[in-house]
Amino acid sequence: MSEKTDTVKLGKQLNEGKTKIVYEITSQPGKVLLQSKDKITAGNAARQHEMKGKAIVSTATAAKVFELLAIAGVKSHFIKQHSDTAFIAEACDMIPIEWVTRRVATGSFLKRNPGVTEGYRFCPPKLEMFYKDDAAGDPQWSREQILESKMTHGGLLIGPDEVDMMSKVTVCVFEILEKAWATLDCSLIDMKIEFGVNNKGEIVLADIIDSDSWRLWPSGDKRLMKDKQVYRDMAEVTEEGLALVKRNFEWVAERLDHLTPKPNCRAVVFMGSPSDFAFSQKIAETCQKYGLPCEMRVSSAHKGTDETLNILAQYEGENIPTVFIAVAGRSNGLGPVLSGNASWPVINCPPIKADWGNEDVWSSLRLPSGLGCSTVISPEAAGLMAAQIMSLHDHLIWSRLRANKLNTWLGLKKVDKKCRTEQTVE
After folding, report:
1. pLDDT confidence of 1, banded at 50, 70, 90?
2. Helix (H, G, I), strand (E, B) or coil at 351
3. Domain coordinates of the chain in residue numbers?
4. What is the pTM of this model?
5. Contact, 77 vs 200, CB < 8 A?
6. How far is residue 383's CA from residue 385's CA, in Å, rounded to a whole number?
């Protein structure tokens, strides 16, 4: 173990897998230490070799992946990296199912589905489940088999709602990582993840995600693969071959650093009056929720047209992708003026009042030809629309939007289950 492990008091060994050991942390109840091994395996450990330094690479990869998912808003057991070869996580009762998402048909899928051509693209991604049983070769299970097994973990019966939730999270995790890798011209072909039940009775993404977990093809070219398939395909494993696999894994870990860049886009809210500040602040808060930086300016297109255009020119001259949001009541000249002079998108979000709202809104809706600014009434909707526009440019914003959609779905699912349960009890 790394020298840093003396900062926590370890208890008993809870589990040992092919590539990791899980220890209880007695000084931090409810938490565990996942210690990676310098070992690589394939074919349910039918092939296995020592690979010096793999534990460091695997831990770095897992920590970066979980941190990226946390930025997006996907809940997992990961807490923090503890040392070069271990990280601290929530204690979980693991569910013995591997959840596999595939974008491209390759590998075992072709063997199980004769007639499907390698490279067939699944849209939406293909979801498969496999029961973890080395002796049986990790057989593929259907949804019905999982339900009929009536497995219970962490005091939670894995029923239809739980299977649905894990299915949704699995696809979301894949799509977020797929989008991230695409920014580096790498295709995420497929990947596997696992879930556990924490001490709160919640199902969370758990275990470890590293280069053992996926197929990754730079430029979409299988010949350039950087994953464990290189090891699987070796007719004979040599020291040179293991060194190549390790270099590939290091390549992946290093490039993960480039998947969480600082945002290079923004929203700018133009207020026609300082009285619109509270309304505009709601727009800014929504933008920031999705990781979109937001600035606020005050400028009246009616009373200070030249200054409005000067501010606009400053922003466009900085060459930072920008969405402009015009907040102006009564007669909205601000949005149309910005739209008529800007090359970037403009959103009208007039703070409609009850007295003249029905009349005032037409100044945002009926515009001269050649103007393309859209109009929304809700400040939250304006911030959301700005984030959606910029998600075309920034994969982290897209990921937050995708995870928010997932979390909304999960929240409704949990409330619906609770409602049904309470009715049954009554």
Report:
1. very low
2. coil
3. 92-257, 266-393
4. 0.93
5. no
6. 5
